[in-house]
Amino acid sequence: MLEVEKLSKSFYSGFLIRRRFDAVKEVSFSLSRGKALGIVGESGSGKSTIAKLVARLLKPTSGRIYFNGTEITSLYDKEFRSFRPRIQIIFQHPETALNPRMKIYDSIAEPLRIHRLVGSRREERARVKELIREVNLPTELLSRYPAMCSGGEVQRVVIARILALEPELVVADEPTSMLDVSVQAQVLSLMKRLQRDRRISYLFISHDVGVVKAFCDEVLVLRRGEVVEHGKSERVFLSPSHEYTRRLVRASNVSCMANNS
Amino acid sequence: MALLEIDGLKVEFFTEEGVVKAVNGVNLKLDRGESLAIVGESGSGKSVLALAIPRLLPVNARISGRILFNGRDVLRMSEEELRKLRGRKIALIPQNPGSSLNPVLTVGYQLKEAISLLNGSRRKALKDAVELLRRLRLPEPERFMKLYPHMLSGGMKQRVLISLGIAGNPELIVADEPTKNLDSMVRAEILELLKEIGRTTAMLFITHDIQAAKICDRVAVMYAGEVVETGSAKEVLSRPAHPYTTGLVSSLPENGLIPIPGSSPGMTSLPEGCSFYPRCSRAEESCSKKKPELRRGVRCFYA
């Protein structure tokens, strides 16, 4: 479904002396329907840049991205518009993901209105209620503003908003790194259920090896913009072949650290 | 005599929405050279507890109970006495390294300022600052001192805050979420460092990360402003007894990401009886009426 070929992105800075920074270097991978692919790496490894490239929030310097066979990087914005509902993104910071001046109801109804998915107000209300229930939130939340909700609630509202468009691919950029563990478990088990019921595919960006191991079928280990290891997540984390992966796994294992002494 | 003894501590805030009960009767004890992790999720009152110890809470907080440090009640000390206590005897390592350093002063300036205030000598301060940075394994300390906070990564800023904390050789370090927002590799390094410091100095380690609690000798789990379980770190994490601790442990990725149903209660409207009963799978009718006491380290009728 998603095919990424030799994707690269460089950023330029400076005025008289141009400096180049290669954030992503010739990364290739593919993702099939209903699967979850994880991308792990430390801060600055280029994970989030890949997320933005796939969601077409950034233009790649070179490389191609195929979505169901169509090359989407060379499309004009107008041509891409029909793909927009099918590729959606969840951002890391729930507190900035929603418009603070819009009630939760309107935040969820907005994509329905923009993409003309409902015919009448009544239909809209019914659909919004259905969506909020699907993410296990009470309907009372609909009349509140984002500031009146907890981080876990907002992140589930974001998911409800995305579901309104019935996406095929969801790019999740550290969706739970700002959440408490018990809330993280709630959000991830919701995402897992949607993967099963609606055959959504995830491109799951995280620095947390434990979360990726539990959530993803396959994993890509990224270091300074380059893929250092790629494979089934169980294999990669149980017997990592690259030194960098080994270091990541060791770092996530605080338990080993505590037992050493 | 214990180094720190907290007895029936309550902290309330008066806000427009009503009285927020952030800390609801906490008893804790910490001996010299001992480390205690306070584990809790957002809104459990753990950071308020941390700030109450060196008396750094805002003026609208009403504090009751006793906080005995070396046998003397911090809550009854004068400003003058508190000034001698903070930084020298009790040091706080604040959360959010991004906003806890002054953005317009170099790291070196901030370190030297703190050190010269603590031991009175400006000349010695430079040497001590370099020594501290070296102890925290920061590369090229002399060059590092000339940098501004925005030039540093999150992990480096956290190290600077830790060095500010240990600069005065305090008897007690209160570290408030020092591993928040750090990626897993940096988190492991910071934990290693704190563990080392905790070996020589008494430490209260506030964290939302139940796995990180393993670096301490003992753990106290907080929920809705109360300690619901306490014991040795090994014991509590491997055989949790309270339903909330059990839930926390099983929501970890390696234990299957099994969530606790519901969400934490608002601190303006705590349930009567056991504060966890609305989310508890083991709850009986009586749990909604009577509040369980902390017995053998667990605040539950059925554990």
Report on this model:
The complex is a heterodimer of chains A (261) and B (303). Chain A is an alpha/beta fold and 261 residues long. Chain A has helices at residues 47-54, 77-80, 94-97, 104-114, 121-134, 151-163, 181-198, 209-215, 233-238, 243-252, 254-260; strands at 2-13, 19-31, 36-40, 62-67, 70-71, 87-90, 169-173, 201-206, 218-223, 226-232. Chain A has a single domain (2-260), classed as Rossmann fold (3-Layer(aba) Sandwich). Chain A is 39% helix and 25% strand. The mean pLDDT of chain A is 90. Chain B has helices at residues 46-52, 79-85, 97-100, 107-119, 122-135, 141-144, 154-166, 184-200, 233-238, 243-250; strands spanning 4-15, 18-30, 35-39, 61-69, 72-73, 90-93, 172-176, 202-207, 218-223, 226-232. The two termini of chain B are 31 Å apart. Chain B has a 6-stranded mixed beta sheet, with helices on both faces. In chain B, strands 2-1-4-5 form a 4-stranded antiparallel beta sheet, with helices on one face. Chain B is globular. In chain B, a hairpin with a 2-residue loop joins strand 4 and strand 5. The mean pLDDT of chain B is 91. Chain A binds chain B through residues 42-43, 150-153, 177-178, 180-186, 188-189, 192, 207-211, 213-215, 247-248, 250-252, 254-255, 257-258, 261, and chain B through 41-42, 153-154, 181, 183-188, 191-192, 195, 208-212, 214-215, 233, 247-248, 251-254, 256-260, 263.
How are the SSEs placed, and which strands pair?
The complex is a heterodimer of chains A (261) and B (303).
Chain A: E1 2-13, E2 19-31, E3 36-40, H1 47-54, E4 62-67, E5 70-71, H2 77-80, E6 87-90, H3 94-97, H4 104-114, H5 121-134, H6 151-163, E7 169-173, H7 181-198, E8 201-206, H8 209-215, E9 218-223, E10 226-232, H9 233-238, H10 243-252, H11 254-260
Helix pairs in contact in A: 4-5, 4-6, 5-6, 6-7
Chain B: E1 4-15, E2 18-30, E3 35-39, H1 46-52, E4 61-69, E5 72-73, H2 79-85, E6 90-93, H3 97-100, H4 107-119, H5 122-135, H6 141-144, H7 154-166, E7 172-176, H8 184-200, E8 202-207, E9 218-223, E10 226-232, H9 233-238, H10 243-250
Helix pairs in contact in B: 4-5
